[in-house]
Every structure is written in C-alpha cells, then in structure tokens.
Amino acid sequence: MSNPADSNPATCGTPVDQASTNTTPLSDVSERKTEIRKQAHDNRRTQADKDGVSVAIVDRFMKLPQYATAHTVMFYVDVRDEVRTRHALPEALATGKRIVVPYCVDGELELFWLESMDELELGMYRILEPTADLRSVASKKLQPEDLDLIMVPGVAFDRHGGRTGHGKGYYDKLLEHAKPQTPLVALAFECQMFPEIPMDSHDIFMDKVVTESAVYDGRGRS
Per CATH, which fold does 49-217 belong to? Predict the structure, then answer.
C-alpha cells in the first residue's frame, strides 16, 4: 500500500489499480511484459522535469527508516531515462555508510565499494562505471550478501512490488543472492506504475517502490 500522506496518483501514463492481483496466465507473461515495457519506455521518455522529479524520489528513498539503519547500501547509477541517482552519491558518501554501485561484466553485475566520485568514469555507452584500474582491487569487490539495502531500477512496476526490467535478468541474478532480510527498494517515476506486472515464478517482488507521489509497500520475497 502507499503511505496515505504521500498518495497523489497523478500519472503521466497508464493509471495504477490498487485492486489488481498478479494472476496473468504464464503463457501470456512474455507478450504482456513486452507491451508494458514499450508503454513504460514511452511514458518515461516523456516524463517532464526528470532532474527535479528524480531529486524528490531519491530524497524520499534516503529518508526511509531502512536507509537510516543500513550500513551497506547499493545505489544504481542511472542510465538513459531512469530515475536519476548520481546527484545523490556525494551526499550518500558523506554519511559514513558503505556505498556500493553495480557494473556489468559479461552479462553479470559486479559490485564495487565506492569511496569517492573520482573512482567513476564514463564507460561504454557513456555509462558511469568504476575505473578500470580499481576493478581488480580485492577490497573494492563486494557480494550481494554484504548489502543491507538495495536500490533497484526497472522499466515498469505495480503497487504490489511487481517489477519488469529490460528482460536480460541482470538484477534478478543479483537479487537471488541477497540476504532474505535485505530490503529491495525500487525507484520509479509514477508514470512507470501499471495496474499489474505479470510475474513468472522466478521473478522477484520488491519490498517497496518509491515514486514522486508515494511509497508503495510491495510483497517482497516472502
């Protein structure tokens, strides 16, 4: 459910439906996800004031009780039209928490302990990544089991914590190894919220989805 004080479901795309249940037949999952991804990409591309709205969303994330108590927090670093997060990294680094960012190697996400913004550089496709010389430093490498809170990107979500990404499964593989008690918190523009995300048996529900309008409590992995 959303926080009552925060609810303001003004969406720029498909409206959410609190009464939905994830009951799409498995045979329809792939086709429906493709449709949702296309609509979500269109919605996200036309999102007005991405910078300002992103600041509001990330600020809401950093005010969560789960953030306050976490020692090791994974931030994704935004690409393309995702909710922008890189502006918040300096503030997060100044809190004394251990901040972790993911980067992709051969189709797998690796985790990097970020201690300074100088440790990041523009890589392939102008994605901000750890510098090549630091990736082999053993002390900078972490595992999903080390994380106390995980910020998760995605293409589309629902109020139950249903999520779909780009279909590559990068985050699904990582999240499978996270501690059961580690909260999975997705960031999204309200226009990325849909009545229902069809879920396969291996798909992982988020514990929370944070938008500019609300904090939705998802099913999580229970």
Answer: Rossmann fold (3.40.50)
Please give the Cα distance from 73 to 101 (Å, whole number).
9
Confidence band, pLDDT 50/70/90 cuts, at residue 16: very low
Q: How many CB atoms lie within 10 A of CB 15?
A: 12
Split at pLDDT 50, 70, 90, the class of 2 is very low
| Cβ 215 vs Cβ 37: under 8 Å | no
Mean pLDDT throughout 82-93?
98
- Amino acid identity of 9? P
Distance between CA 21 and CA 23 in Å, rounded? Answer: 6
As to burial, measured by CB atoms within 10 angstroms (0-12 exposed, 13-18 middle, 19+ buried), residue 66 is middle
Residue whose token pair is 């999903």 = 144
Distance CA 170, CA 57 (A): 23
Structure tokens given for 117 = 């913004």
Please give the radius of gyration of the chain, using alpha carbons only, rounded to the nearest integer.
17
What DSSP character marks residue 176? T
3-state DSSP assignment of residue 149: strand
Measured distance CA(220)–CA(162) in Å, rounded: 9
Instruction: Render 129-146 in DSSP notation, one character per residue.
Output: EE-GGGTT-GGGEE-GGG
Q: What does the pLDDT look like over 92-120, one tens digit per residue?
A: 999 999 999 999 998 899 999 999 999 99
The domain locations on the chain are 49-217
Amino acid of residue 219: R
